[in-house]
């Protein structure tokens, strides 16, 4: 028998190479989660309850680690995968726990109110940006990011209006830092403003930048807050399509390009809606709901650690005073509009 016949065949295993690439970052995220879980357990042992749950602690610990140590490049792929893919999977799995009864509790006033709040926020954010001297394209990007869904809206709007890389970078500089601050501080407003679980979910859905961050802001409060917050945020995200279409009609002569459908309606939102539909139709076995919820929780905490590891608090200093003022004032106005809508909703 020839040596060629006995030589083992070379087999390409791209999935194995990819796993090796992701492993360092995944292990770092898991280490952050482990510390967060230990701190939560210590809180329970000392105080009888966890004032900061592991989900929030994972963000804080990750941010502290990132602020004092920049992970080497070999960690980047796993951190990015955890912050994006794992978080999107977690959001998709949330669809299995969504109750149509909770969705319809506030009635059509909520849906119409969300559209009105987004429209008002877009106009206010753009106006305040121009008043503070931001270039028109940057003011549009900041308005879209603040009013709809943070980086995703900026990424979708940028090619339509022909924004350059500098405009995009300046516009998204705040998303990571300010988004984490909102997630951490928003639950403190619930008792101060006397909000119930449904009202707090509406507030979170209308003010938090990204769909996954809504989960982080509402999970420590109640399951109803998670459901309503996710619903409200999804309605905001779905408004990205009409907004980008409008921008493309207005700015079509500037050479902008229409973004792909995947940017207007991300796959995990379609998955979320599909699972919610299956749940409503009774096609998801009850025995599967618990494991799905547990998996969503595990992936969420891992992704929160990754988000924290991706936060560099120094980006605020690089964003500039005008962008800082525009984003902060826009966020405050958005919060005020959200509270106004909450008081118009029927009591539950």
From TrEMBL:
Compartments (UniProt record): Cell membrane
Pfam family, one: Cons_hypoth698
Major place of residence: membrane
Alphabetical keyword list: Cell membrane, Membrane, Transmembrane, Transmembrane helix
GO cellular component terms attached to this protein's record: plasma membrane
InterPro entries: UPF0324_pro (IPR018383)
Transmembrane segments: 51-69, 81-100, 106-128, 140-162, 168-190, 202-228, 234-252, 264-282, 288-311, 323-345
Key word 4Fe-4S present: no
UniProt keyword Transmembrane present: yes
Membrane topology: Multi-pass membrane protein
Stated family: Belongs to the UPF0324 family.
The protein, known as: Sulfate exporter family transporter
Natural source organism: Teichococcus wenyumeiae
Lineage of producing organism: Bacteria, Pseudomonadati, Pseudomonadota, Alphaproteobacteria, Acetobacterales
């Amino acid at each position: 028998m020839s040596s060629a016949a006995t030589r083992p065949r070379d087999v390409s295993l791209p999935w194995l190479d990819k796993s090796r690439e992701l492993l360092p970052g995944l292990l770092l995220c898991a280490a952050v989660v482990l510390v967060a879980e230990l701190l939560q357990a210590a809180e329970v042992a000392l105080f009888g309850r966890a004032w900061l749950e592991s989900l929030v602690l994972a963000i804080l610990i990750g941010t502290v680690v990132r602020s004092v140590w920049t992970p080497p490049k070999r960690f980047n792929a796993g951190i990015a995968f955890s912050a994006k893919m794992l978080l999107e999977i977690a959001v998709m799995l949330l669809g299995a726990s969504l109750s149509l009864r909770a969705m319809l509790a506030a009635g059509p006033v909520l849906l119409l109110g969300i559209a009105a709040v987004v429209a008002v926020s877009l106009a206010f954010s753009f106006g305040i940006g121009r008043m503070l001297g931001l270039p028109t394209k940057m003011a549009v990007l900041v308005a879209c990011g603040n009013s709809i869904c943070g980086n995703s809206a900026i990424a979708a709007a940028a090619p339509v209006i022909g924004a350059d890389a500098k405009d995009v970078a300046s516009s998204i500089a705040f998303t990571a830092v300010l988004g984490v601050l909102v997630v951490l501080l928003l639950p403190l407003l619930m008792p101060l403003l006397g909000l119930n679980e449904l009202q707090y979910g509406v507030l979170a859905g209308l003010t938090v930048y990204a769909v996954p961050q809504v989960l982080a802001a509402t999970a420590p409060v109640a399951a109803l807050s998670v459901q309503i917050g996710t619903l409200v945020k999804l309605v905001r995200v779905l408004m990205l399509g009409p907004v980008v279409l409008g921008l493309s009609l207005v700015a079509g002569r500037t050479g902008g390009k229409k973004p792909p459908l995947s940017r207007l309606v991300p796959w995990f939102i379609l998955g979320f809606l599909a699972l919610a539909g299956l749940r409503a139709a009774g096609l998801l076995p009850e025995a599967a709901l618990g494991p799905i919820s547990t998996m969503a929780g595990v992936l969420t905490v891992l992704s929160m650690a990754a988000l924290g590891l991706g936060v560099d608090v120094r980006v605020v200093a690089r964003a500039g005073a005008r962008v800082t003022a525009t984003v902060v004032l826009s966020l405050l106005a958005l919060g005020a509009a959200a509270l106004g809508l909450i008081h118009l909703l029927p009591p539950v």
